[in-house]
Specification:
With about 100 residues, this protein is mainly beta. It has a domain of about 45 residues. The chain has one helix and three strands. The protein has a three-stranded antiparallel β-sheet, covered by helices on one side. The N and C termini lie far apart (about 105 Å).
């Protein structure tokens, strides 16, 4: 049989103060060992004093596969400096928007 002193265990005071609980700091993720650390890439910024002047061109074609712009026509336009910047397809036609720097 177990003897006790009759004192309520909730009323017993510790003989020395407890150390303060440190604040919780979550663990930080560590990079995998086999992945080398790479320095960030810095993108250069180019400033121009003269504003760009653009020239625009639209080409309207039908919506069937044989009416659309093919790769050869795009290559020709690109060689002339035209850049495709937008395509809008409507019910009966497709509009291609191009731009290039004005010469």
């Amino acid at each position: 049989m177990c003897e006790h002193s009759g004192a309520d265990p909730r009323s017993v005071q510790p003989t020395r103060p407890l150390p303060p609980t440190p604040p919780y700091i979550p663990p930080q993720p560590q990079p995998p060992v086999d992945v080398p650390l790479v320095a960030p890439v810095i993108t250069p910024i180019v400033y121009s004093r003269e504003p760009y002047v653009w020239e625009y061109k639209t080409i309207v074609k039908g919506t069937t596969n044989r009416d659309l712009i093919d790769a050869e026509e795009l290559q020709t336009l690109g060689a002339d400096g035209w850049e495709l910047v937008g395509v809008i397809t409507m019910s009966a036609s497709t509009v291609y928007y191009f731009k290039r720097l004005q010469a």
